[in-house]
Amino acid sequence: MKTLKVYDAVVIGGGHNGLVTAAYLARAGKKVAVLERRHVLGGCSNSEELWPGYQVSTAAYVVSLLEPKIMADLRLRDYGLKILRRSPSSFTPLLDGRSLTLGSDMAECQKQIAQFSKADAVNYPLYCEMLERVARQLEPLMQRTAPNPLPLPNSWRKKGVLSKIRNGQQMWEMFQALGELGDDLPHAMQLLSGAARPLLENWFESEVLRATLGTDAIIGAFQSLSSAGSAYTLLHHVMGQAGGARGVWGYVQGGMGGLANALAQACTDLHVDIFTETEVCKILTSEGKVCGVALGNGRVIETSVVASTVDANLTFNRFLDEDDLPAGFRTAVGAIDYSSASMKINLALAETPKFSCVASDGIGPHLHGTIHISPTVDYVERAFADALAGWPSTEPVLEITIPTSLDETIAPAGKHLMNVFVQFAPYKLAENKQWDDIKEEFADRCIAQIARYAPNVPAAIEHRQVLSPLDLERTYGLTGGNIMQGAMTPNQLFFMRPVVGWADHRTPVRGLYLCGAASHPGGGVMGTCGRNGAAAILKG
């Protein structure tokens, strides 16, 4: 094997977390290489010209969770990152001719909600204020390395005195943050461990409001609104501030690849070497520590540090030999839940969708935000029940965005892009059915469902791309098609992510670190995993 340049650190994966990790390491004076298997950077947060003139956000499609500190530290706005704030942010059409539109104007939100319930119109600002207070206290905890409160045996992981002191300090800081919640502590505990359905039913009586808010609790997850832990998924989606305020989501101008481009430029100016179409086949070790990586072309890169931003399954089960890891650790990794039920449909349209419940032509404000096809909580629960039985939902939950409503740079003049995120499309199908055989038929069903609300959509489609859970796995290296690199259920969060005792980005192999969504705090376009992972590497 031919040895290439020696680096202080090699980052596996050129997604947003990988680029963030590389940038922070390079800022500290390290010589860093980023190795990306695909031809394009960004991982799931990328843009591709699928059809002439269209820049399609093929997987991730909106941003809010990206840390403002990362944006400032890496000067991403100077490198061209522009986030287009969506207002209104949410539109739920109904078949009876009504609709619910929500945004940042609280008075207008209350007016909209009052169509369905005057009591809910009163409660809605109280609910939003509660979420804001809880998120304000908990968000800093999510942006730090998770402490380990468990008395782990030495056979599992040895911890030095300094590490134990640091853990104790972190636990005390967490205790203090929870204490600051005061009367909101019961709400916080329900959000951290409870189910979304009873939470929403305690606050609101109108089905359309419950269902609209409840979609945040299931997106990217294989769980129902009644599942324990679904309330945290809801909270997770309202904590970001990249859109200008907490919980406000925006489009990246030029598509999600605009973020990857800005990060790549920051890395380049920091002298990071970025290689695309460069597949890692193996992490090389010697005497229990990293010594390099072997590439698909037979070459080797020498390094004492590898930052992996792919998931734990690939990192530990594909890139390492079995005897590189303790048996107990390998067993724990093998038990990680990658249950997935997400699918993505990208459409190029000749015209904007025309929803029957809105008297509007062209780009009305209702098209700026996320369009929810999920009129009731029971509708969502039925969709989940189908998937639990191994079938794509008969009536799927659809989250639809029209990024061209705010961004004219991503499609030819007069044309539009529609992103459709589908729940529930189970990775594992019943009766030995295969996704390659049924995905187009299921996409037809999804489009037919949209047509019930916007009849002009089927005839307006000029191009389409369908990414099944299997496609997400093959294209983006996501085990089971899970976009979070592992289910974000209570047993796989915080100090238990990726496995108990190893939430500080370190691994049993010295010099090998997890810096992607498989680590705390998990999935979403936030960059925190990459930033905290880099900090762990620099501490050694």
Describe this structure in a few short sentences.
It contains 17 helices and 19 strands.
Explained architecture:
The protein is of the alpha/beta class. Helices cover 34% and strands 16% of the residues. It has 17 helices and 19 strands. The strands form 5 sheets. It has a 7-stranded mixed sheet with strand order 7-6-15-16-17-14-18, sandwiched between helices. The chain has a 5-stranded parallel sheet with strand order 9-2-1-13-19, with helices on one face. Strands 10-11-12 form a 3-stranded antiparallel sheet, with no helix packed on it. Helix 1 (16-27) runs parallel beside helix 10. It is globular. It starts with 8 loop residues before the first strand and ends with a helix.
Detail the topology: elements first, then pairings.
Layout: E1 9-12, H1 16-27, E2 32-35, E3 48-51, E4 54-56, H2 68-73, E5 83-85, E6 90-93, E7 99-102, H3 106-114, H4 118-142, H5 161-179, H6 185-193, H7 196-203, H8 207-214, H9 230-236, E8 250-252, H10 257-269, E9 273-275, E10 280-286, E11 289-295, E12 300-302, E13 306-308, H11 312-318, H12 327-334, E14 342-349, E15 370-373, H13 377-388, E16 397-401, E17 416-423, H14 435-451, H15 457-460, E18 461-467, H16 469-476, E19 512-514, H17 528-539
Parallel strand pairs: 1-2, 1-13, 2-9, 6-15, 13-19
Antiparallel strand pairs: 3-4, 5-8, 6-7, 10-11, 11-12, 14-17, 14-18, 15-16, 16-17
